[in-house]
Specification:
heterodimer, A: 423 residues, 5-stranded parallel β-sheet, 15 helices, globular, B: alpha/beta, 7-stranded mixed β-sheet, 7 helices, 17% strand
């Protein structure tokens, strides 16, 4: 029978052919936790199985949501995770490592893998052809302790991307457009499966941005076929041996087929307080912006920093708009230093934070004041998300973030991509 | 009014886990009884003070969207809430509710107003609205999840069956 990508990966793990709607209990290849949800997962593992991990080498525990710790309570949570990781032999990624979703993809995720994590943006791994999904602490505790989990095999929406990418329009604009179209729960329980020539033309970094935000339409996974881009990414990461060609079967059954011609897209902004409240940038241009947050598992990679820096290099930030740049990982940070991006960003007037989730989760590293607006390259704009329920969060691409940092307000980034703009 | 009723606290669509258990309170995640004193306060500052054991949280669509933080349903449960009712739930939140033993009921909540007195008949699949003298029927929770819920959550299920026993 013809299978979707999700059915294929879950069938391999179940040892039999499974279709949408079936229940499977399957082994997991990788489990991740972070410091926001990890302490509870640790306590649940200890309740169910004692201090134990079924597959320590595939259990990766991150300290990224409050890194470095701003409070003693969180420092004690960090201790809980460090001690557990050491006791069971799990992989510990301490405060310097960066955002779990970035680092797990740089170092561990491979095509055909099943990855579960106690963080909703675990779906980022779908961009490498993995079945990667977020769960709660107790589900992840079961995966840590027993090496398996249960799933209902999801139905799939196939999203075919065609057309050429216009200058100044990025995968972030595409995924915001799609979420606006589907609605915040338009793909609840669904596997989003991406395909098409406009996807093939994207580098791996741009692909991660799309998979990362699948959850913002409610999806269980946002999965992509593998190709030469995937292969080169894995080779560069020293994991070329983990590459394999993975595609859905011709004739696979899809619950819905969606076509998007990216050549018709414009820069998009998600407005407060839901991610599906998406508008073309031209409609909200002029909205004052007090803080720009350039970072996160959505858009905190080297390629994102390059886009941002190219636009702002040699200029000064608008005096109203503070700029927080948080590289997604230590490797991203190091490469950004090596390429001279960090120096240019400092000269522009940016504050550079330690790699991690930073301002995105509202714990520390850039909490908003009452009545302030932030333009963030991250993935959520819920009320209170960035630490203050009386603030407004607008989501956009790194180019839109750069345009806002220069203008002090939301502005169309395409002006920086016109002939002679020097980008 | 019959016994075992509870007050409905009505919230809107897209109640996120950031609204239930915001990131600014992350330092309380290992002290959940303290965190429960702030449950849903960004949606309704009075809610944590007013809610009593046996009350109901009633949402619209996509209840519990966003972060996977299990602390969100856990502090709803710790506040004494008997069940969460919504037209639809976000996937991770729903699974978390079952795993911690908090009934998450998918039903038409349009006819339930803030302050209505409700009771829940899980076996019959009925939410009784005593204020409106109306019954709201709901489809049974999927078999695999009902088992986990009835056993008191996933940890209790694992302890009872010495592992996952849901196939």
């Amino acid at each position: 029978m013809a299978l979707t990508l999700s059915e294929k990966i879950l069938s391999e793990h179940a040892g039999r052919e499974v279709r949408a709607g079936e229940l499977v209990v399957i082994p997991v290849d990788l489990v991740l936790t972070q410091d926001g949800t990890g302490p509870l997962a640790v306590r649940q593992v200890e309740k169910m199985a004692g201090r134990k991990a079924a597959n320590p080498a595939g259990t990766v525990m991150f300290l990224d949501h409050a890194a470095p710790s701003p409070r003693m309570e969180l420092s004690n949570d960090h201790k809980t995770i460090r001690e557990f990781a050491e006791a069971v032999g799990a992989v510990l990624c301490d405060i310097e490592a960066g955002v779990c979703h970035q680092v797990i993809n740089e170092k561990y995720v491979f095509p055909g893998a099943v990855l579960v994590g106690s963080d909703s943006h675990t779906c980022t791994g779908g961009a490498l052809g993995a079945f990667a999904t977020g769960m709660g602490s107790t589900d992840v505790a079961v995966a840590i302790a027993f090496g398996k989990t249960w799933f209902r095999v999801p139905e799939t929406f196939r999203v075919k991307m065609t057309g050429r990418w216009p200058a100044g329009v990025f995968s972030k604009d595409f995924i915001l457009h799609l979420i606006g179209m589907l609605g915040a729960d338009g793909a609840n329980y669904i596997a989003l499966e991406f395909a098409g020539p406009a996807l093939s033309r994207l580098n791996q970094s741009e692909r991660f941005t799309i998979a990362n935000m699948a959850i913002e339409a409610g999806a269980k996974v946002g999965v992509m076929p593998t190709d030469g881009v995937t292969k080169r990414y894995l080779e560069k990461a020293g994991r070329g041996d983990r590459f394999r060609v993975l595609k859905p079967d011709a004739g696979a059954r899809y619950a819905r087929k969606i076509d998007v011609d990216v050549s018709k897209l414009v820069p998009m902004i998600a407005c407060p307080h839901t991610v599906d409240n998406v508008k073309p940038v031209t409609e909200v241009a002029g909205t004052p912006i007090h803080q720009v947050f350039m970072g996160s598992c959505t858009n905190g990679r080297l390629e994102d920093l390059e886009i941002f820096t190219k636009i702002v290099a040699g200029k000064q930030r608008h005096k109203r708009t503070r700029v927080i740049v948080t590289p997604a990982s230590r490797d991203v940070y190091k490469a950004a230093v090596k390429k001279g991006l960090v120096e240019k960003l400092i000269d522009f007037g940016a504050s550079i934070n330690t790699p991690g989730c930073g301002a995105c989760v509202g714990v520390h590293g850039g909490i908003l004041g009452n009545g302030e607006n932030c333009l963030a390259t991250s993935n959520r704009n819920f009320k209170g998300r960035m630490g203050n329920p009386d603030a407004g969060i607008y989501l956009g691409s790194p180019a839109s973030a750069a345009a806002a940092a220069l203008a002090g307000e939301i502005a169309d980034p395409r002006r920086h991509f016109m002939a002679g703009a020097g980008v | 009014m019959p016994e075992n009723t509870g007050r409905a606290y009505k919230f809107g669509d897209n109640v996120s886990t950031d609204l239930i258990a915001p990131g600014r309170l992350m330092h309380l995640r290992s002290n959940l009884p303290e965190m429960a004193k702030h449950v849903l306060e960004d949606a309704d500052p009075e809610f944590p003070k007013k809610v009593k054991a046996g009350d109901f949280v009633v949402g619209g669509s996509n209840f519990g969207c966003g972060s996977s933080r299990e602390h969100a349903p856990t502090i709803i449960k710790l506040a004494g809430v008997k069940a969460v009712l919504a037209k639809t739930f976000a996937r991770i939140f729903f699974r978390n509710c079952i795993n911690i033993g908090l009934p998450a009921i998918v039903c038409d909540t349009d006819g339930i107003a803030d302050g209505d007195e409700l009771s829940l008949d899980m076996a019959a699949g009925i939410v009784r609205n005593h204020t409106k003298a109306a019954d709201v029927r709901f489809a049974p929770i999927p078999e695999s999840m009902r088992k986990i819920l009835e056993e008191g959550g996933l940890v209790a299920h694992i302890e009872k069956h010495k592992g996952l026993a849901i196939e």
